[in-house]
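tool_call: predict_structure(chain=1)
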Amino acid sequence: MSALVFVDSNVLIYSVDAGDPQKRDAARAWTEELWSSRRGRISFQVLQEFYWIAGKKVPEARDQIRVEIRDLLAWEPVAIDGAVLEFGWKLQDRYQLSFWDALIVAAAKAAGCAFLLTEDLQAGQDLDGVKVLNPFLTEPASLGL
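tool_result:
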């Protein structure tokens, strides 16, 4: 399968947070598979949220988080421009999403992703052609990446 997978910040945050080893391991399995398959995509919003929240949760790892963010630039981050913002508003109204979640979905759509990996939205939901996957209920192998 050549489908692209957009990764929400919560997946990246769990990958560095030792507080929940099960979720950490699942998040790492997903990110490792997406690195290997070169199918991972993100937005600058995701990178900003990852830096801010992970840095607060694990302040001693701030330098490592910065290294990871530099590496994630290879995932072709989507910038939130006027078109993504406008589409995000349409998605917000259509699906009754929070503004921030709507921007994530709009960025996933702009990146050409078939899937959105997040625990923040309803698993299995189709949001304008982007299917929501919960990384803690679905394994990477199930997509055949």
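agent: The beta strands are 5-7, 40-41, 115-117, 126-127, 130-133. Proceeding to next step.
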